[in-house]
Design brief:
The structure is a single chain. The protein is α+β, with helices and mostly antiparallel strands. It is built from two helices and six strands. Strands 1, 2, 3, 4, 5 and 6 form a six-stranded mixed sheet that branches. The longest helix is centred in the middle third of the chain and has 17 residues. The radius of gyration is 16 Å and the shape is elongated.
Length: 144
């Protein structure tokens, strides 16, 4: 298994069961959420860049991970988003290695502005929370 997949699984595990979003966590969510699905988190894998300096034995990489918080409310949507932002941050920083011996660090890469939508029964908003996970793998095998 590619180490990027192991990282994505670890992120999903870390975010499962947060106070606000509970088990409404899904990787690579492609279908539109309904009112019943909210609040929820989506986890998306981004670019997996190679570090500038490597050697003959290993490759250092930076895997971008986007966690999208989805909420609905009559008012104070940004308050709920901020609560989720805090919970996600605490979960990912509880162990910056995500329990993986090959992870070097997990770094917050900023949060995007909330996006609001009034098309459903109640106002809906989403916000992208961006993280970078730095890790190392063998030159010969990205799973080792």
């Amino acid at each position: 298994m590619h180490r990027a997949e192991q990282i994505m699984q670890a992120v999903e595990t870390a975010l499962m069961g947060l106070t606000t979003t509970g088990t409404n966590v899904k990787r690579a969510r492609v279908y539109k959420l309904t009112d019943e699905d909210l609040p929820a988190l989506s986890i998306n894998m981004g670019a997996d860049d190679i570090a500038d300096e490597n050697n003959m034995a290993f490759i250092d990489r930076s895997l971008a991970i986007e966690v999208v918080a989805h909420v609905k409310a009559n008012d104070a949507i940004d308050t709920t988003l901020n609560k989720i932002r805090r919970e996600v941050h605490q979960a990912l920083y509880a162990d910056y290695t995500l329990g993986q011996s090959f992870v070097i660090d997990t770094v917050l890469n900023g949060d995007d502005s909330p996006e609001f939508n009034g098309e459903l029964e109640k106002p809906v908003a989403s916000q992208r929370l961006n993280y970078i996970v730095m890790y190392r793998h063998s030159v010969a095998d990205p799973g080792a």
